[in-house]
């Protein structure tokens, strides 16, 4: 078997074209242009690149975006006052604080300061709680992108055995909750899981978000499984790879996402989607 390679770039392009149309219509109808404020603390190179990509994606679909850069030495009160100003600014519909933050800043206190109605990352505890009870306003962008890819590929979710490798707040836990909400039977594995292969081999849909290159090898994958690789790892030779050994696993899976070009483009697309949802809610 050779897997169908899921074209995240193509799916993202189609969704962004639809978003551009929806944003133009919304602007014409209401006079409001959706606006995202991104707050970047410090000089982490990867974070800078992600933030620049988010700003460009906003412009490409006709949204406004503002990036506020703060020094790594920024104090908690300084950061909270920047968030407060964006919360109060009625022209801002979405607020995103790029993670990771410098170690001296308490992540939860920062995320909880963002207005629930502008929390387009879906990281505020209220929105996380919404995922748990199945009443979501903003779904976290990467898990939402995974779900959209599965839907776009017409891969059934209900009743399937889903194994999520990685239990982070950003990807693993919300992905598990969202797919459980779609009636999958979900298992979460993490760094302390004993005999990972025993779990992964049972997966009809395997979602891997562990941040470890080559964690998933072909013998760990069921024949015909759908493999979604959320990992983004830079190797010493500069290559970007996921967490899955793509070349061997593609011979066993029915579908597989490449890295780059799989889940990555969907994450920003869902951020744009959430920002439009926030802008619509602000005028209704
Ligand atoms: N860092 C890595 N992924 C994300 C994300 O989805 N949102 C934010 N705010 N920071 C991140």
Report what the structure shows.
It is a single chain. The chain is an alpha/beta fold and 284 residues long. The chain has two domains: 31-115, 3-Layer(aba) Sandwich (Rossmann fold); 141-264, Rossmann fold (3-Layer(aba) Sandwich). Helix content is 42%, strand content 15%. The N and C termini lie far apart (50 Å). The mean pLDDT is 97. The protein binds guanine (GUN). The site of guanine has 8 residues, from strand 4 and helix 6. Residues 96-99, 121, 141-142, 170 line the site of guanine.
Number of helices: 10
Low-confidence stretches: none
| Helix content class | 40-55%
Radius of gyration: 19 Å
The shape, in one word, is globular
Distance between the termini: 50 Å
Quaternary organisation: single chain
The ligands bound in this entry are: guanine
Average pLDDT reading: 97
- Assign the CATH class of the largest domain: Alpha Beta
**Which range does the strand content fall in?**
15-25%
Task: Name the CATH superfamily assignment of the largest domain.
Answer: NAD(P)-binding Rossmann-like Domain
Largest sheet: 6 strands, parallel
H and E string: EHEHEHEHHHEHEHEEEEHEH
Strand order of the largest sheet: 1-11-8-7-5-6
Class of secondary structure makeup:
alpha/beta
Number of domains: 2
Specify the CATH architecture of the largest domain: 3-Layer(aba) Sandwich
CATH topology of the largest domain: Rossmann fold
